[in-house]
Amino acid sequence: MPVYHNYVDGKWKEAVGARRRKVLNPANGQVLANVTLSSASEVTEAVAAAKNAYSSWEKVPAPERGELLFEIAQQLKQKKEELSQLLTSENGKPIQEARGEVQEAIDMGFYMAGEGRRLFGQAVPAELPNKQAFSMRCPVGIAGLITPWNFPIAIASWKMFPAIMTGNTVVWKPAVETPGMADAFVRILEECGLPPGVVNLIHGTGEETGVAMVEHPDIDIISFTGSEETGRQVAAKAGARLKKVSLEMGGKNAITVMDSADIDLAVDGILWSGFGTSGQRCTAASRVIVHRRVQDELERKLVERTKQLKIGNGTDEAVEVGPIINKKGLEKIHHYVTIGKEEGKLLCGGQVLRDASYQGGNYYEPTIFTNVQPEARIAQEEIFGPVLSIIPVDSFTEALKVNNNSAFGLSSSIFTMNVNEVFQALNEMDTGIVYVNAGTTGAEIHLPFGGTKTTGNGHRDSGTASLDVFTEWKSVYVDYSGKLQRAQIDNN
């Protein structure tokens, strides 16, 4: 039985007290491994290692750091299938989705490697003669990364690669549900020659290990992806210590289907966005806003296709919907479905799958409600499972209003053939991501990822926007006039 240990200052070690937690395969309940559970003392040790490594790592030229990232991306590419199989065993997502996630980490590695030669500042004219003015990016210091189980390597790469590319060192706490992916990822960093202390891996719970990271005085920035409830706690604790904080939290994403839409294409997009990853994505579609003129057709085709989806162990290449991550998640989904039966009409699904073919696993039927009111709980609260709420509307204007009627603001989608509706939607949908004639999932790593309102706090993962999270701007003035020149002073 494997045991996943911490990685601190270039050494693999178990947490003090040898406390462990079982790692379960959500598809069948099989025990895959054990993971060590860390306390505040392990966090302190990891921070000390990161602090010691920082003084030398920040001085490594950025192009050289980029070359190392290129090697890491190459190793990820070579081990893609091995990593994908491991991901599916821990996380449960279908193997094709797992391959896509590992590819995101590969892409992010190559992309950030290039930033080693594009870590641009700004050179601007100075307002006084014989004076040069420019700006440059500097690392923040020690970055504490707290990442979720639903994208255990993709989201880690979104945070880790820009952090180390820009000269920061890292203390990383992955989710306890997926420690094997973290272990495999860090072993690749080690094989590629990342210096000891630059990335330190600490396994443990959010309540203990995560809190210790947020409260540690020597961690300069916390980058967190997870639930809104936990994100608020992270923000409060870090804010009290004046730490820089980047939060990426929930979503209640809507797909709008107008009367001019290609309905078959819309059905494809809804199925993939709503039931892919069993709805366990922050960008998953959980609301479908449909014009009444096409409501009946959309519902008929959607229900028919939903009932044809193959549910099961994600290692089966034909499976389209895998298990829920754990029993707690399963119970939460069923709780909301019970509420939904009072708030809308159940079209299909609505049950935990318990027959022999699903023995030991955490499976939930893809579920669709219709005639749901925009203010209903199932239309407002994040369920994080394969549950769709169909909300009928009478006009495009009403559709936009319903789309924006959410505390979250991550992703929106519209299916329409009306170009005027497209551009009005792009301007008025108040989410960080907008799709046209596609679902709400599938962000690409070279654009910013994140949202508005309670989805986050204004920062973004991925793309060049992620550089802003892990750097501080330094403005530099070089006066070679040989005399004191005072800016903004009237010298006439």
Please characterize this protein's 3D structure:
The chain has a 7-stranded mixed β-sheet with strand order 15-18-19-14-13-21-22, sandwiched between helices. It has a 5-stranded parallel β-sheet with strand order 10-9-8-11-12, sandwiched between helices. It is of the alpha/beta class. Strand 6 and strand 7 form a beta hairpin. The longest helix has 20 residues, at 95-114. Helix content is 38%, strand content 22%. Helix 1 (40-57) crosses helix 7 (206-215), helix 3 (80-91) runs antiparallel to helix 6 and helix 4 runs parallel beside helix 5 (154-165). The protein folds into 2 domains: 3-249 and 456-476, Aldehyde Dehydrogenase, Chain A, domain 1; 253-436, Aldehyde Dehydrogenase, Chain A, domain 2 (3-Layer(aba) Sandwich), CATH 3.40.309.10. The protein starts with a strand and ends in a 13-residue tail after the last strand. The radius of gyration is 24 Å and the shape is globular.
